[in-house]
Design goal:
single chain; 264 residues; alpha/beta; 60s Ribosomal Protein L30, Chain: A; Alpha/beta knot; 2 domains; seven-stranded parallel β-sheet; four-stranded mixed β-sheet; 10 helices; 11 strands
Length: 264
């Protein structure tokens, strides 16, 4: 599909995006990814842990000039309650969430943008799972509205297992306007809906592409549907009527990846 030049009028009057996220994260994958991204400011390790993965993490931190502190399990739990931290917690600089201006730059600089749009995903665990899947599928960016969307909480970052550092996250003010901008830039906007006539596996998902997934309860909003070039459905057998958003995102993203020549 030929991409057309765009102006920046779609984002006029929008404030610059600031940092968003959490100060503390837990879990081996999340902390390792934050170390690799240069975001770790302090590191706490559970006393008595001597396994190979913890030792490798300690060595990586010390190579960066970060000296771990050792705490008992109860103290770690008190620092980050409700998170399965696997014996490691870090204080980090927040993941920088981006906005319309940065999204426009990404589109301009990427030959065949491959994007995931989340319309109304409100569960941080689902957001984290979608980020992890998007990273694995080679997505260039994840887009979601500022309103009625999950925050990038410690739980989301842990579930993402490095996906929060791997894939840029764009929070935008007006999703309908952003979808119009994507279409004007020559990007096909394909939404998912259970009642759609077109089967996912019969749709063309090559070239510049934005895949749009709806929220946990109501799916795609009406205005979002109206701004899609095509709606597709995931074929399902049996008595199950719907899938978890992160599972559905995985199916759709990896079908697109397959069509885009991932297997050579």
């Amino acid at each position: 599909m030929k991409r057309r030049s765009t102006s920046n009028s779609w984002r006029e009057g929008r404030a610059a995006e600031g940092d968003a996220g959490a100060d503390l994260i837990g879990g081996l994958h999340a902390v390792r990814s934050a170390l690799e991204g240069g975001r770790v400011e302090a590191l706490w390790i559970e006393k008595g842990r001597r396994d190979r993965r913890i030792q490798a993490l300690i060595q990586e931190a010390e190579a960066l000039g970060i000296v771990p502190r050792f705490l008992d399990k109860a103290s770690l739990e008190a620092r980050l309650p409700g998170i399965r931290h696997q014996g490691v917690i870090a204080r980090v600089r927040p993941v920088r969430e981006q906005g319309e201006a940065q999204l426009e730059a990404l589109i301009r600089e990427t030959d065949e943008p491959f994007l995931l749009v989340l319309d109304g995903v409100q569960d941080p665990h689902n957001l984290g799972a979608c980020l992890r899947t998007a990273c694995a599928a080679g997505v260039h960016g994840v887009i979601l509205p500022k309103r009625r969307s999950a925050a990038l909480t410690p739980a989301a970052i842990k579930v993402a297992s490095g996906g929060a550092e791997c894939v840029p996250l764009f929070r935008i003010t007006n999703l309908a306007r952003t979808l119009r901008f994507l279409k004007d830039a020559g990007i096909a906007v394909v939404g998912t809906a259970g009642e759609a006539h077109t089967c996912l596996f019969r749709a063309s998902l090559t070239g510049p592409l934005a895949l749009v997934m709806g929220g946990e309860e109501k799916g795609l909003r009406r205005l979002t549907r109206e701004h899609c070039d095509l709606l597709v459905r995931i074929p399902m057998e049996g008595g199950v009527e719907s899938l978890n958003i992160s599972v559905a995102a995985g199916i759709v993203l990896f079908e697109a990846l397959r069509q885009r020549g991932a297997c050579g």
